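RECORD CONTENTS
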Amino acid sequence: MAQSRLGWFARKEKRYDALIIVLWTVSFTSVFLRAIYTQASAGLLDDVIVIGICLVAGTALRDIGKIILGYFIAIPGGMLLVFFLTILPALNGTIPPPSDQLLISLWISILVKMIFPIQFLAFLVASVIGSLIGERYL
């Protein structure tokens, strides 16, 4: 009987971690999509907001191993969502065929230049600092 309760606790913790990673991905995506659709690119304020999101996610997960794994799931997942939502007009046929390939390659280069390498490392450092805060104080 005690073993089944312990198994339920472990499953609940894994669901909690997965929910944090999914929310981390969605919030990252929403910040960058808002920046793209209102300003055509992410600015300093958007990067600061994402750094805050990474700090909070690191504090919530509280384990450096989970943070590293979650970071390398959340950030590429968020960038894939941003990429998919920005090229959606090319996928559904709104943009005619010669131009849709140009749009896809253009957005790949824009997104890579928008996040690599400085922001990528700053978000990782913020996540690790959040993890250290979570381990120390929570």
